[in-house]
Protein backbone atom coordinates (compact mmCIF):
# COMPACT_ATOMS: atom_id res chain seq x y z
CA UNK A 1 0.00 0.00 0.00
CA UNK A 2 1.48 3.28 -1.12
CA UNK A 3 1.53 5.80 1.76
CA UNK A 4 -1.11 3.72 3.52
CA UNK A 5 -3.81 4.39 0.92
CA UNK A 6 -6.38 1.65 0.43
CA UNK A 7 -7.16 1.98 -3.28
CA UNK A 8 -10.01 -0.51 -3.27
CA UNK A 9 -11.79 1.59 -0.64
CA UNK A 10 -11.13 4.72 -2.77
CA UNK A 11 -12.98 3.01 -5.62
CA UNK A 12 -15.89 2.02 -3.36
CA UNK A 13 -16.22 5.58 -2.08
CA UNK A 14 -16.01 6.90 -5.63
CA UNK A 15 -19.14 4.95 -6.56
CA UNK A 16 -20.98 6.13 -3.43
CA UNK A 17 -20.04 9.75 -4.11
CA UNK A 18 -21.24 9.50 -7.74
CA UNK A 19 -24.84 9.55 -6.47
CA UNK A 20 -24.60 13.17 -5.29
CA UNK A 21 -22.89 14.47 -8.44
CA UNK A 22 -26.24 15.40 -10.13
CA UNK A 23 -27.24 17.45 -7.08
CA UNK A 24 -23.89 19.27 -7.05
CA UNK A 25 -24.20 19.98 -10.78
CA UNK A 26 -27.76 21.25 -10.29
CA UNK A 27 -26.65 23.70 -7.57
CA UNK A 28 -23.79 24.80 -9.78
CA UNK A 29 -25.89 25.26 -12.93
CA UNK A 30 -28.71 27.12 -11.17
CA UNK A 31 -26.30 29.51 -9.45
CA UNK A 32 -24.34 29.86 -12.70
CA UNK A 33 -27.44 30.87 -14.67
CA UNK A 34 -28.70 33.24 -11.97
CA UNK A 35 -25.18 34.63 -11.68
CA UNK A 36 -25.12 35.37 -15.41
CA UNK A 37 -28.52 37.12 -15.22
CA UNK A 38 -27.35 39.13 -12.20
CA UNK A 39 -24.14 40.02 -14.01
CA UNK A 40 -26.09 41.32 -17.03
CA UNK A 41 -28.25 43.45 -14.71
CA UNK A 42 -25.16 44.83 -12.98
CA UNK A 43 -23.56 45.58 -16.35
CA UNK A 44 -26.70 47.43 -17.50
CA UNK A 45 -26.69 49.54 -14.32
CA UNK A 46 -23.01 50.34 -14.56
CA UNK A 47 -23.09 51.21 -18.27
CA UNK A 48 -26.15 53.43 -17.95
CA UNK A 49 -24.62 55.05 -14.83
CA UNK A 50 -28.00 54.95 -13.05
CA UNK A 51 -27.73 57.43 -10.19
CA UNK A 52 -27.68 55.97 -6.67
CA UNK A 53 -27.83 52.39 -7.94
CA UNK A 54 -24.42 52.79 -9.54
CA UNK A 55 -22.75 53.45 -6.20
CA UNK A 56 -24.62 50.61 -4.47
CA UNK A 57 -23.46 48.24 -7.23
CA UNK A 58 -19.91 49.53 -6.84
CA UNK A 59 -19.93 48.71 -3.12
CA UNK A 60 -21.50 45.30 -3.78
CA UNK A 61 -18.87 44.43 -6.40
CA UNK A 62 -16.01 45.61 -4.23
CA UNK A 63 -17.26 43.62 -1.22
CA UNK A 64 -17.98 40.36 -3.04
CA UNK A 65 -14.79 40.40 -5.06
CA UNK A 66 -12.59 40.85 -2.00
CA UNK A 67 -14.11 38.35 0.46
CA UNK A 68 -13.94 34.54 0.33
CA UNK A 69 -16.93 32.41 -0.67
CA UNK A 70 -16.96 30.84 2.78
CA UNK A 71 -17.75 34.22 4.35
CA UNK A 72 -20.55 34.95 1.83
CA UNK A 73 -22.04 31.59 2.69
CA UNK A 74 -22.03 32.27 6.44
CA UNK A 75 -23.33 35.82 5.98
CA UNK A 76 -26.21 34.66 3.79
CA UNK A 77 -27.01 31.59 5.88
CA UNK A 78 -26.93 33.25 9.32
CA UNK A 79 -27.39 36.92 8.42
CA UNK A 80 -30.24 36.94 5.92
CA UNK A 81 -32.87 35.25 8.18
CA UNK A 82 -32.15 37.81 10.95
CA UNK A 83 -32.29 40.70 8.49
CA UNK A 84 -35.58 39.57 6.94
CA UNK A 85 -37.02 38.73 10.35
CA UNK A 86 -36.77 42.45 11.21
CA UNK A 87 -39.06 43.23 8.25
CA UNK A 88 -41.36 40.42 9.24
CA UNK A 89 -40.51 37.78 6.66
CA UNK A 90 -39.76 34.33 8.06
CA UNK A 91 -37.35 32.35 5.88
CA UNK A 92 -35.89 30.08 8.57
CA UNK A 93 -37.79 27.12 7.11
CA UNK A 94 -36.20 27.50 3.68
CA UNK A 95 -34.02 24.71 2.37
CA UNK A 96 -30.26 25.01 2.74
CA UNK A 97 -29.92 24.67 -1.03
CA UNK A 98 -31.62 28.06 -1.44
CA UNK A 99 -29.06 29.77 0.78
CA UNK A 100 -26.23 27.98 -1.01
CA UNK A 101 -27.51 29.01 -4.44
CA UNK A 102 -28.10 32.57 -3.22
CA UNK A 103 -24.57 33.03 -1.88
CA UNK A 104 -22.96 31.43 -4.94
CA UNK A 105 -25.14 33.58 -7.22
CA UNK A 106 -24.12 36.78 -5.44
CA UNK A 107 -20.44 35.91 -5.72
CA UNK A 108 -20.64 34.64 -9.28
CA UNK A 109 -22.69 37.63 -10.45
CA UNK A 110 -19.94 39.98 -9.26
CA UNK A 111 -17.29 37.81 -10.88
CA UNK A 112 -19.03 37.45 -14.26
CA UNK A 113 -19.95 41.14 -14.48
CA UNK A 114 -16.22 41.92 -14.37
CA UNK A 115 -15.78 39.47 -17.28
CA UNK A 116 -18.62 40.99 -19.34
CA UNK A 117 -17.72 44.66 -18.83
CA UNK A 118 -14.32 44.69 -20.58
CA UNK A 119 -15.81 42.58 -23.39
CA UNK A 120 -18.59 45.12 -23.91
CA UNK A 121 -16.09 47.98 -23.87
CA UNK A 122 -13.83 46.10 -26.31
CA UNK A 123 -16.46 46.43 -29.05
CA UNK A 124 -15.54 49.64 -30.87
CA UNK A 125 -17.70 52.74 -30.62
CA UNK A 126 -17.79 52.79 -34.43
CA UNK A 127 -19.84 49.59 -34.34
CA UNK A 128 -22.43 51.28 -32.11
CA UNK A 129 -22.52 54.34 -34.36
CA UNK A 130 -22.85 52.22 -37.51
CA UNK A 131 -25.72 50.23 -35.99
CA UNK A 132 -27.45 53.44 -34.89
CA UNK A 133 -26.97 55.03 -38.30
CA UNK A 134 -28.86 52.28 -40.11
CA UNK A 135 -31.68 52.66 -37.62
CA UNK A 136 -31.46 49.46 -35.56
CA UNK A 137 -33.38 49.55 -32.27
CA UNK A 138 -31.37 49.24 -29.04
CA UNK A 139 -32.33 45.58 -28.60
CA UNK A 140 -31.66 44.65 -32.24
CA UNK A 141 -28.31 46.41 -32.05
CA UNK A 142 -27.30 44.33 -29.01
CA UNK A 143 -28.60 41.12 -30.51
CA UNK A 144 -27.12 41.41 -33.99
CA UNK A 145 -24.04 43.61 -33.64
CA UNK A 146 -22.71 43.82 -30.11
CA UNK A 147 -23.31 40.40 -28.53
CA UNK A 148 -21.90 38.34 -31.46
CA UNK A 149 -18.68 40.33 -31.16
CA UNK A 150 -18.59 39.95 -27.39
CA UNK A 151 -18.90 36.14 -27.37
CA UNK A 152 -15.33 35.22 -28.47
CA UNK A 153 -13.89 37.68 -25.92
CA UNK A 154 -16.18 36.54 -23.11
CA UNK A 155 -15.92 32.74 -23.49
CA UNK A 156 -12.52 32.11 -21.82
CA UNK A 157 -13.56 34.26 -18.86
CA UNK A 158 -16.93 32.56 -18.56
CA UNK A 159 -15.22 29.17 -18.70
CA UNK A 160 -12.95 30.19 -15.82
CA UNK A 161 -15.95 31.48 -13.87
CA UNK A 162 -17.73 28.15 -14.36
CA UNK A 163 -14.72 26.15 -13.18
CA UNK A 164 -14.25 28.41 -10.17
CA UNK A 165 -17.93 27.93 -9.40
CA UNK A 166 -17.54 24.13 -9.36
CA UNK A 167 -14.59 24.47 -7.00
CA UNK A 168 -16.55 26.87 -4.80
CA UNK A 169 -19.33 24.33 -4.33
CA UNK A 170 -16.80 22.35 -2.26
CA UNK A 171 -17.27 24.67 0.74
CA UNK A 172 -21.06 24.27 0.88
CA UNK A 173 -20.73 21.37 3.33
CA UNK A 174 -20.04 23.87 6.14
CA UNK A 175 -23.76 24.73 6.33
CA UNK A 176 -24.66 21.05 6.17
CA UNK A 177 -25.45 20.65 2.50
CA UNK A 178 -25.05 17.07 1.27
CA UNK A 179 -23.16 17.63 -1.98
CA UNK A 180 -19.90 15.83 -2.87
CA UNK A 181 -17.97 17.14 0.15
CA UNK A 182 -21.01 16.84 2.44
CA UNK A 183 -21.46 13.21 1.45
CA UNK A 184 -17.74 12.62 1.95
CA UNK A 185 -18.04 14.01 5.48
CA UNK A 186 -21.00 11.70 6.16
CA UNK A 187 -19.08 8.68 4.87
CA UNK A 188 -16.20 9.54 7.20
CA UNK A 189 -18.58 9.92 10.15
CA UNK A 190 -20.21 6.55 9.40
CA UNK A 191 -16.77 4.98 9.34
CA UNK A 192 -15.78 6.53 12.70
CA UNK A 193 -13.10 8.48 10.83
CA UNK A 194 -10.84 5.51 10.15
CA UNK A 195 -10.17 6.05 6.45
CA UNK A 196 -10.39 9.79 5.94
CA UNK A 197 -7.64 10.06 3.34
CA UNK A 198 -9.29 7.61 0.95
CA UNK A 199 -12.60 9.50 1.03
CA UNK A 200 -10.97 12.86 0.29
CA UNK A 201 -8.92 11.36 -2.54
CA UNK A 202 -12.12 9.94 -4.05
CA UNK A 203 -13.83 13.35 -3.74
CA UNK A 204 -10.80 14.95 -5.39
CA UNK A 205 -10.96 12.51 -8.31
CA UNK A 206 -14.65 13.28 -8.84
CA UNK A 207 -14.03 17.05 -8.91
CA UNK A 208 -11.12 16.45 -11.28
CA UNK A 209 -13.31 14.49 -13.72
CA UNK A 210 -16.15 17.07 -13.59
CA UNK A 211 -13.77 19.98 -14.22
CA UNK A 212 -12.00 18.05 -16.99
CA UNK A 213 -15.35 17.50 -18.76
CA UNK A 214 -16.35 21.17 -18.43
CA UNK A 215 -12.90 22.20 -19.71
CA UNK A 216 -13.45 20.14 -22.87
CA UNK A 217 -16.95 21.63 -23.39
CA UNK A 218 -15.69 25.19 -22.92
CA UNK A 219 -12.79 24.73 -25.33
CA UNK A 220 -15.19 23.24 -27.92
CA UNK A 221 -17.31 26.40 -27.65
CA UNK A 222 -14.20 28.56 -27.90
CA UNK A 223 -13.11 26.80 -31.10
CA UNK A 224 -16.57 27.10 -32.61
CA UNK A 225 -16.99 30.80 -31.92
CA UNK A 226 -13.41 31.65 -32.80
CA UNK A 227 -14.11 30.20 -36.26
CA UNK A 228 -17.32 32.17 -36.67
CA UNK A 229 -15.45 35.32 -35.68
CA UNK A 230 -12.79 34.78 -38.36
CA UNK A 231 -15.49 34.18 -40.97
CA UNK A 232 -17.07 37.49 -40.07
CA UNK A 233 -13.80 39.26 -40.56
CA UNK A 234 -13.03 37.70 -43.94
CA UNK A 235 -16.56 37.88 -45.31
CA UNK B 1 -29.24 39.21 17.89
CA UNK B 2 -26.97 41.64 16.04
CA UNK B 3 -24.98 44.08 18.14
CA UNK B 4 -22.81 46.78 16.63
CA UNK B 5 -20.36 47.05 19.53
CA UNK B 6 -19.72 43.29 19.29
CA UNK B 7 -18.89 43.77 15.62
CA UNK B 8 -16.18 46.32 16.48
CA UNK B 9 -14.80 44.16 19.28
CA UNK B 10 -14.59 41.23 16.84
CA UNK B 11 -12.90 43.33 14.19
CA UNK B 12 -10.18 44.33 16.66
CA UNK B 13 -9.65 40.84 17.98
CA UNK B 14 -9.53 39.37 14.48
CA UNK B 15 -7.14 42.12 13.35
CA UNK B 16 -4.45 40.71 15.65
CA UNK B 17 -3.91 37.75 13.30
CA UNK B 18 -3.59 39.85 10.13
CA UNK B 19 0.26 39.93 10.21
CA UNK B 20 0.56 36.15 10.52
CA UNK B 21 -2.02 35.61 7.75
CA UNK B 22 -0.17 37.98 5.43
CA UNK B 23 3.15 36.38 6.32
CA UNK B 24 1.73 32.94 5.56
CA UNK B 25 0.37 34.21 2.23
CA UNK B 26 3.78 35.70 1.41
CA UNK B 27 5.63 32.46 2.18
CA UNK B 28 3.11 30.49 0.08
CA UNK B 29 3.48 32.93 -2.80
CA UNK B 30 7.28 32.67 -2.80
CA UNK B 31 7.41 28.87 -2.56
CA UNK B 32 4.57 28.60 -5.10
CA UNK B 33 6.43 30.77 -7.62
CA UNK B 34 9.68 28.86 -7.03
CA UNK B 35 8.04 25.45 -7.59
CA UNK B 36 5.99 26.83 -10.49
CA UNK B 37 9.12 28.29 -12.10
CA UNK B 38 10.91 24.93 -11.81
CA UNK B 39 7.92 23.14 -13.37
CA UNK B 40 7.78 25.68 -16.22
CA UNK B 41 11.49 25.31 -16.99
CA UNK B 42 11.24 21.51 -16.88
CA UNK B 43 8.33 21.60 -19.31
CA UNK B 44 10.23 23.82 -21.75
CA UNK B 45 13.13 21.31 -21.73
CA UNK B 46 10.64 18.71 -23.08
CA UNK B 47 12.01 15.64 -21.27
CA UNK B 48 9.73 12.86 -22.64
CA UNK B 49 8.26 11.16 -19.55
CA UNK B 50 8.71 14.06 -17.12
CA UNK B 51 6.74 16.33 -19.47
CA UNK B 52 3.69 14.04 -19.30
CA UNK B 53 4.03 13.68 -15.52
CA UNK B 54 4.12 17.45 -14.99
CA UNK B 55 1.14 17.95 -17.31
CA UNK B 56 -0.81 15.35 -15.33
CA UNK B 57 0.20 16.99 -12.06
CA UNK B 58 -0.91 20.45 -13.22
CA UNK B 59 -4.22 19.11 -14.53
CA UNK B 60 -4.85 17.27 -11.23
CA UNK B 61 -3.94 20.19 -9.01
CA UNK B 62 -5.99 22.71 -11.00
CA UNK B 63 -8.98 20.37 -11.18
CA UNK B 64 -9.40 19.95 -7.44
CA UNK B 65 -10.78 22.50 -4.96
CA UNK B 66 -8.33 23.98 -2.49
CA UNK B 67 -10.13 22.53 0.53
CA UNK B 68 -9.62 18.96 -0.71
CA UNK B 69 -5.92 19.69 -1.20
CA UNK B 70 -5.77 20.81 2.39
CA UNK B 71 -7.51 17.68 3.68
CA UNK B 72 -5.40 15.33 1.55
CA UNK B 73 -2.19 17.07 2.66
CA UNK B 74 -3.28 16.93 6.30
CA UNK B 75 -3.81 13.18 6.24
CA UNK B 76 -1.09 12.16 3.76
CA UNK B 77 1.86 14.19 5.10
CA UNK B 78 2.34 12.16 8.32
CA UNK B 79 2.28 8.95 6.26
CA UNK B 80 4.76 10.43 3.79
CA UNK B 81 7.14 11.56 6.55
CA UNK B 82 6.86 8.15 8.15
CA UNK B 83 7.66 6.41 4.87
CA UNK B 84 10.69 8.61 4.22
CA UNK B 85 12.31 8.88 7.64
CA UNK B 86 11.31 5.64 9.36
CA UNK B 87 11.17 3.62 6.12
CA UNK B 88 7.56 2.87 6.99
CA UNK B 89 8.43 0.31 9.63
CA UNK B 90 7.24 2.08 12.76
CA UNK B 91 3.64 2.95 13.42
CA UNK B 92 2.99 6.55 12.44
CA UNK B 93 2.90 8.66 15.57
CA UNK B 94 4.16 11.74 13.79
CA UNK B 95 2.12 14.92 13.93
CA UNK B 96 2.85 17.72 11.51
CA UNK B 97 2.11 21.30 12.43
CA UNK B 98 -0.99 22.77 10.73
CA UNK B 99 1.06 25.74 9.48
CA UNK B 100 3.42 23.42 7.61
CA UNK B 101 0.45 21.53 6.16
CA UNK B 102 -1.08 24.77 4.90
CA UNK B 103 2.21 25.92 3.39
CA UNK B 104 2.74 22.60 1.58
CA UNK B 105 -0.85 22.28 0.30
CA UNK B 106 -1.30 25.90 -0.77
CA UNK B 107 2.18 26.14 -2.32
CA UNK B 108 1.51 23.11 -4.49
CA UNK B 109 -1.88 24.57 -5.46
CA UNK B 110 -0.34 27.94 -6.34
CA UNK B 111 2.59 26.35 -8.16
CA UNK B 112 0.34 24.78 -10.82
CA UNK B 113 -1.21 28.13 -11.76
CA UNK B 114 2.11 29.97 -11.55
CA UNK B 115 3.88 27.42 -13.75
CA UNK B 116 1.34 28.15 -16.52
CA UNK B 117 1.91 31.90 -16.10
CA UNK B 118 5.69 31.60 -16.11
CA UNK B 119 5.64 29.21 -19.09
CA UNK B 120 3.52 31.64 -21.09
CA UNK B 121 5.88 34.47 -20.16
CA UNK B 122 8.95 32.44 -21.17
CA UNK B 123 7.34 31.41 -24.46
CA UNK B 124 6.39 34.99 -25.28
CA UNK B 125 10.08 35.94 -25.56
CA UNK B 126 11.09 35.48 -29.21
CA UNK B 127 13.61 32.73 -30.00
CA UNK B 128 15.70 35.38 -31.74
CA UNK B 129 16.27 37.07 -28.40
CA UNK B 130 17.47 33.80 -26.86
CA UNK B 131 19.78 33.14 -29.82
CA UNK B 132 21.15 36.67 -29.58
CA UNK B 133 21.93 36.00 -25.93
CA UNK B 134 24.11 33.00 -26.85
CA UNK B 135 26.21 34.95 -29.37
CA UNK B 136 29.45 36.59 -28.26
Written description of the protein model:
The complex is a heterodimer of chains A (235) and B (136). With 235 residues, chain A is mostly helical. Chain A is built from nine helices and no strands. Chain A has helices at residues 7-18, 21-48, 53-65, 69-87, 96-122, 125-133, 138-168, 180-190, 196-234. Chain A starts with 6 loop residues before the first helix and ends with a helix. Chain B is mostly helical and 136 residues long. Chain B is built from six helices and no strands. In chain B, helix 2 packs across helix 5 (98-124).
Summary of the model, kept short:
Chain A is mostly helical. Chain A has helices at 7-18, 21-48, 53-65, 69-87, 96-122, 125-133, 138-168, 180-190, 196-234. In chain A, 80% of the residues lie in helices and 0% in strands.
Question: Shape of chain A from CA axes?
Answer: flat
Radius of gyration of chain B: 21 Å
- SSE string of chain A, helices as H and strands as E: HHHHHHHHH
CA gyration radius of chain A, whole angstroms: 22 Å
Oligomer: heterodimer
Got a strand count of chain B?
A: 0
- Please state the average pLDDT score of chain A: 85
Question: Strand percentage of chain B, roughly?
Answer: under 5%
Largest sheet of chain B: none
Q: What does the average pLDDT of chain B come to? A: 86
Percentage of β-strand residues of chain A: under 5%
Shape of chain B: extended
